[in-house]
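Researcher: Next sequence.
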Amino acid sequence: MISVAMLSKWHVHAVDYERDIHNSSKLNITQVWDEDKERGQQWANELNVPFEPELEKVLCNPAIEGVVVDTPTNMHKDVIIKAAQHGKHVFTEKVLALTAADCKEIFEAVQKAGVTLVVSMPRLSTDYYLYAEQALKEGLIGELKMARCRVAHNGSVPSAENPEGWLPAHFYNAEQCGGGALIDLGAHPIYLLNRLAGKPKEVSAHFDYVYSKEVEDQASVLVSYENGVTGVLETSFVSHGSPFYLELYGTEGCLLIQDGKVELRNGEGTHVIEQLPKELPIPMEQWADAIQSGKTPFISNEDALLLTAVNEAAIQSNVEKRRVSIQL
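Model: Next structure:
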């Protein structure tokens, strides 16, 4: 069993990673650290493991082999680099860091330490994504020319139960998060289309501040890719009941995915695809497999770098009200 320390419960997905580890036969949570000591102690009590208030002591503990980083995003770089320098394998929430330059510093530290880094990008493991990738490789819709992806929920919408919405208040802290709906929920459309459409070249973004938070709660982004494909990315914290959409439009057909239903339209007609590829292991299991057996994770450093690069360019585009080229 790989001994894991949970580093912060700041992000809402920390409890999901806790569950993934408990469901794994390869991983075991043995310690908790949190920049918020009260929150960390409470979580450690719930997990029945020790709480350590000093990060350095966690990272110096030879019994700890890996860490799951769910700190505020602006802490990722320092925490991950320190963990790598102490020889700890790292699993972390997206995004990896706030700038592409910071991502490259992290990669350098990880490579030098010889440890495994995996960023959580769960939709790359899904059957519908794998089918989309297969359809493009087989030319089932001809040459891809345009793609659209939307992921949204109503986390910012006030209700009687949650007057400020159900997302935690710190998700609107610009300093900690580095952004709002796009950097968090919009990460999924970004990394999916980066894989399917090619390397991003230029970005034009528009952010909305529907509930006047520090960060955007809705965003629309146009991405131009090096191979000429245009991508339309949409995300929102203010959309009730919004389905997930992934749409690929080619010269000879289109592939339409809505909430897991996959429909192929081309010269042979319209077909609902029932037989989809077998899903890949979830990101947490990819991390464990890489640590135990050296298996290369499907989620790559390039995925992490390009995700941050699009986010970084989109923020600049929204502020400066112009198209921004991605320089890597």
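Model: Residues 1-119+281-295 form a domain with the Rossmann fold fold (CATH 3.40.50.720). The chain is about 35% helix and 25% strand.
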